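ESCALATION

Customer reports they have been waiting on this structure for their group meeting. Please prioritize. Original submission:
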Amino acid sequence: MQRALDLEPGSEVGKYYLGWAQFGLDRLMEAQRTAEQALLRNANLSQFYFLLARIHIRQHNLPAALKDLESYLKLDPHRQDVQTLAERIRRDIEQDASVIAVARP
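Update from on-call: job pushed to the front of the queue and completed.
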């Protein structure tokens, strides 16, 4: 995959598949960097926001994942599965915040 990108470094499709391959290999920082580089070239690539969301979920960074999903939905608002995931993460964040508030002395 990397060799293909060496031949055509601006390939959004190549970066997309490389990012997912890195994610699958649990190379989260590399996958994140790949997705972010593609978004610098073209911020209208909704699928890269979904990849970033998956990375952030695996990193237990729910606020970043929610931000990624919201960016995705601005570009493709009709994806019900993505809307459902964003709502679930939003509830999890709110629940975590309420647990922290109750636990404070």
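Sent to customer with the following note: The chain is about 80% helix and 0% strand.
Escalation resolved.
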